[in-house]
Amino acid sequence: MRRITERNRFGKTAFDIAVENGQLKCIRQFLISPWLIVNIDIRELINADSLRNAVDQNQLDILTFFINDAKRFAYIIDLLIDVHGQYYNLVSSIF
Length: 95
Hints:
With 95 residues, this protein is mainly α. The chain is 51% helix and 6% strand.
């Protein structure tokens, strides 16, 4: 679990790869792990890249799991995504 945020030579973490491959069981295990909850900030896992990756790969079950928890959902709502210099989030349009 300590290596979950380490990046490989392609710049991907274990979490990124699990999202990309649709490994919902792995994602669940990562996000509900008591060790992870205490030691790793959710922002290191769920970020603009991981959300974009889930959307690009049509991982609707993973996206549903992300918003299934109030804490994760609150974080995702506040997350800003840069699209060609314009910043968007799930609720508002352009910042």
